[in-house]
Specification:
Blueprint lengths: L12 H24 L5 H9 L5 H8 L6 E3 L18 E8 L2 E8 L10 H16 L4 E7 L7 H20 L4 E10 L4 H5 L2 E5 L4 E3 L3 H8 L5 H5 L1 H8 L4 E3 L2 H14 L23 H4 L10 H5 L9 E3 L7 E8 L2 E8 L5 H16 L4 E7 L6 H5 L2 H14 L4 E10 L2 H4 L9 E4 L4 E3 L3 H18 L6 H19 L1 H6 L12 H12 L16
Length: about 525
């Protein structure tokens, strides 16, 4: 493969100004991530320490292999919402190595609202279950939770059972779940260890029951204490709900690691040979390349040159469909097919992308989509040229592609361009964004402009006088509202992605995600739906 050349000038004023703007966005990201690491008040943490308890993130750190990376997922879900517990909810979730095997790890934050599950935590868990199943990952739950947050019960009860369903469905497929219970696992929460393949209960601390002593008293008039009703020793020696009785937290974590050593996982695809060649250019420069203002164009090849191995890229159809860049490369030794936007999608781009996806499926190569797209091209000549049927081909190919995929939002994601570039509704295995990312049906100014035209036409057809001041006021209000709902911060809080990343970490994020994808057999699609010719 040929190495990509760079044409940027890090000394230019435009580069320096953009770099400074991106740094400001990253400062905001790091502040939000720091907020998501909040594990309770000093008083709550001090109380946990006195009880000999570790914090949620400390448990994860001890569980992971030494020096294992940890790909945290959905850390900012629920951020800024007044109806939730704050960024990340009451669980920490991500992928790391335990006994040399990639595992999904979920750790309840017991020092934050008792680890109870609010609306955002519940739906974060649903997405984590999707990723776990798609990638056939063993799962380890570090349990300390009071169950559902009762004020949210009406919103989560009917969906909550899916979490238990997914544990047992994965079990049927040979994808095991280990639960280590360090404290309360009450009501529906008792089914987390109850449905797991392996259950470890900490002596004198684990309390697992469908109804606690007060409810038992109300329901049956029976008086019973916590330990007799659902303690670790009772469940280990009498009920059989527990498989292992841990002396303390460290012993529980040790047992989980010991179990993982005995578990068979699918034989991974060939591991990349060493050494892996680093990109020729500095990842720091991505901050000066990617536009903080998504209306400012940039060449996506400059980003790829700082992400792929040796900056080497075998471009497919380089002279055709020039606003969609397609080709093959390696990232940390893993072969990938890349589709990346350099602007709006024309018919030629859609046709090229369709063929490229088919070729990648025939060769069983995972796909990476780098989204910076304002949509499909519109206008009379483009409609006559078949932009709808050609765009439909691309969406058809994305919909029926069977190779695993990763989508990274590096700029705008507007209209059906989001669909053609493997947006959320097309179920990529992972979806990450940059902090400059904007998403919506269209840009906020375009949206407000369209609505202004509609209002004027409506008033004219009804014979009404146009109130210019009112139209302009409504236009500005709509722009402000659309802007607030199109940011990366809003998108990640609504769980439209799996997390916002620092652009300088792109290579390592993609590399680790690819290691997950390549841990199972990759098999492309054998067929597609009807292509409208």
């Amino acid at each position: 493969m040929r190495a990509l050349k760079t044409y940027i000038n890090p000394q230019s004023e435009a580069y320096k100004a953009n770099y400074a703007q991106m740094l400001q966005l990253l400062e905001k990201l790091h502040l939000h991530l720091e907020e998501s690491r909040f594990e309770g008040s000093e008083k709550q943490i001090e109380r946990a320490r006195k009880r000999g308890k570790l914090l949620a993130r400390e448990r994860i750190e001890l569980l992971l292999d030494q020096d294992s990376p940890f790909l945290e997922l959905l850390p900012l879900v629920g951020m800024g919402r007044k109806d939730g517990f704050g960024a990340g909810g009451t669980s920490v979730s991500g992928i790391g190595l335990v006994a040399g095997k990639l595992c999904m790890i979920n750790s309840n934050v017991g020092t934050r609202k008792g680890g109870s599950v609010d609306y955002h935590t519940a739906f974060k868990t649903f997405r984590i279950n999707e990723i776990t199943l798609e990638n056939k990952l063993p799962s380890i739950n570090l349990v300390e939770s009071g169950g559902a947050n009762l004020p949210d019960q009406a919103k989560i009860f009917n969906y909550g059972g899916a979490g238990f369903r997914e544990i047992t469905r994965r079990s049927a497929l040979g994808i095991p779940t280990i639960s280590v219970v360090f404290g309360n696992a009450t009501a529906g929460g008792a089914y987390v260890p109850g449905m797991s393949d392996y259950a470890i209960f900490q002596k004198q601390k684990a309390k697992v029951f469908l109804a606690g002593p007060p409810l038992v008293k109300m329901a049956t008039n029976e008086e019973v204490d916590d330990e007799s009703l659902g303690g670790a020793e009772m469940h280990s020696r009498i009920s059989g709900v527990s498989d292992y009785l841990a002396e303390d937290e460290l012993d529980g974590i040790r047992l989980a690691r010991e179990i993982m050593e005995t578990i068979s996982t699918p034989k991974p695809q060939p591991i990349p040979e060493e050494p892996v060649e680093e990109p020729l250019y500095d990842a720091e420069e991505i901050l000066g390349i990617v536009s903080a203002d998504v209306k400012v164009p940039f060449d996506v090849r400059e980003v790829m040159a700082r992400v792929v191995d040796g900056s080497q890229f075998s471009e497919f159809k380089p002279e055709y469909g020039k606003t969609l860049v397609t080709g093959w490369a390696k990232i940390h030794g893993y072969p990938v097919g890349i589709l990346a936007n350099n602007g709006v999608i024309f018919s030629e781009d859609a046709n090229k992308g369709t063929q490229f996806i088919q070729l990648s499926n025939k060769n069983n190569i995972p796909l990476i989509f780098l989204q910076n797209v304002t949509g499909f091209m519109v206008g009379k000549s483009y409609e006559e040229g078949g932009i709808i049927k050609n765009g439909a081909k691309l969406i058809n190919a994305v919909s029926n592609s069977k190779v695993p995929s990763i989508t990274l939002m590096i700029g705008a994601s507007y209209g059906a361009g989001n669909y053609g570039m493997n947006g959320l509704s097309y179920q990529p295995n992972f979806l990450f964004t940059y902090p400059n990312h904007k998403i919506g049906v269209m840009g906020s100014e375009q949206l407000a402009g369209v609505m202004e035209i509609v209002q004027r036409q409506s008033a004219q057809s009804l014979g009404q006088e146009i109130n210019e001041a009112q139209i302009q006021m409504m236009k500005q209000m709509l722009i402000k509202e659309a802007e607030s709902k199109s940011t990366a911060w809003h998108a990640t809080s609504e769980m439209w992605d799996d997390g916002i990343i620092d652009p300088r970490d792109t290579r390592n994020h993609l590399g680790f995600a690819l290691a997950v994808l390549y841990s199972q057999e990759i098999k492309g699609s054998e067929g597609y739906g009807i292509f409208r010719m």
